[in-house]
Amino acid sequence: MIEIERQLPVNLDPTDRGLFESYLHHRLPEPKLNRYHGVRATGMGILIKGLSLLPESFPDTLESKEWSWESNKYNQPLTKLKLIAKSHLPGRTEPLGEPALWFTDTWSLSYFFWLSETLARLEFIRPQVEAGWPVVMPGHYLEVDFVKTTLELFGINNLVPVPIGRNRRLREVHIPTRTAGIHHFNPELVRRVGERFRAVAPPCPACIGKKLHISRRKARVRKFVNEDAVEAVFEKFGYTTVCMEDYGFREQVGMLCQARALASIHGAGLTNILMMAPGAAVFELRMRGPLNCSFFNLASACGHPYFYQTCEPEKPDVHEQQNNFIADIDLLTRNLEQIERHLEQA
């Protein structure tokens, strides 16, 4: 087992200690490489062996029942039977006789899970990839910019894409287990992923500074009601405010790998802290009250000092994922002053 010890936020308000307490100590199983024979890989990203769907197809293999809805959805008897039947339709399957690799699951198209978990699994099987083993994966994943660009930057050119509606019959396939449970991260592997990004990062776009504030101004929800005031404070402290949808993934890699500080609302944008060098500051603006500590945990795994600020919801009775935030501007100013002092001393 891997023992994980995490430090409390640098700017912890003692009354918030309970938000982080349960995450300070954690144990992860060591990842391993499972080998199977006679597996059918579908274009949907489901792996079928005989009359079973391989658990590695799904993201919840290390989780309790509360997270098992994904595998349960596909393992419903009728759904499962249809998947197996379609994988045997004549004329839709091509064999692959040499040993192959598979590293994705049905959540790998999520930006958060692609960067923090799927790429960690790819890093775990890096020796086999560099030895030239074919990497089999759903073909439609390669239509997504951050997937396609990552694989190009990382030099993964021995891909075997499986189109939707088609299958690959794999004589022998090796599949890494999950490197960590949901909301947790394998420190060694995510740091290696970050090092790999920094080693191949393109130049940073012009006019982008080393302190970034990721804005959700253009998003439908989960943005600041007082966005103008928030951006003005960040600008005062020398931050460049960016909307990530204005940049391709390659440009994003360039700006993030050189960043010394990154601030954002709780959400997928904070996954980008994985690309920054250890020691860069992370500032998460999160809704007041209980919330998963994914980015507190990821900052710890990457070696980043973590700062946070709790914000009020625009609508008290609406779930955080469908709500907007109200930031306390005076508190934001004090937190940014503290981050500045930390960066000066680093």
What would you call the structural class?
alpha/beta
User: How many domains, as an integer?
Assistant: 2
Bulk shape: elongated
For the terminal residues, how far apart are their CA atoms?
32 Å
**CATH class category label of the largest domain:** Alpha Beta
Report the portion of residues in β strands. Answer: 15-25%
Weakly predicted, low-confidence segments: none
Which fold name is given in CATH as the topology of the largest domain?
Rossmann fold
Instruction: Give the beta-strand count.
Output: 16
Give me the Rg, rounded. 21 Å
How would you explain this protein's 3D organization?
It is a single chain. The protein is α/β, with parallel strands linked by helices and 346 residues long. The protein folds into two domains: 2-26 and 199-345, Rossmann fold (3-Layer(aba) Sandwich), CATH 3.40.50; 33-178, no CATH class. It is 31% helix and 22% strand. The protein has eleven helices and 16 strands. It has helices at residues 17-20, 69-74, 77-86, 111-124, 126-130, 145-153, 187-200, 227-236, 249-257, 294-302, 329-345; strands at residues 2-5, 25-28, 33-42, 47-49, 52-53, 93-96, 100-101, 135-138, 159-162, 167-176, 211-214, 240-242, 261-265, 281-287, 306-313, 325-326. Strands 3, 4, 5, 6, 7 and 10 form a six-stranded mixed sheet that branches. It has a six-stranded mixed sheet with strand order 12-11-13-14-15-16. A two-stranded antiparallel ribbon has the order 1-2. Strand 3 and strand 4 form a beta hairpin. Helix 4 (111-124) crosses helix 7 (187-200), helix 7 (187-200) crosses helix 10 (294-302) and helix 8 (227-236) packs parallel to helix 11. The radius of gyration is 21 Å and the shape is elongated. 37% of the residues are buried. The model has no long low-confidence stretch (mean pLDDT 92).
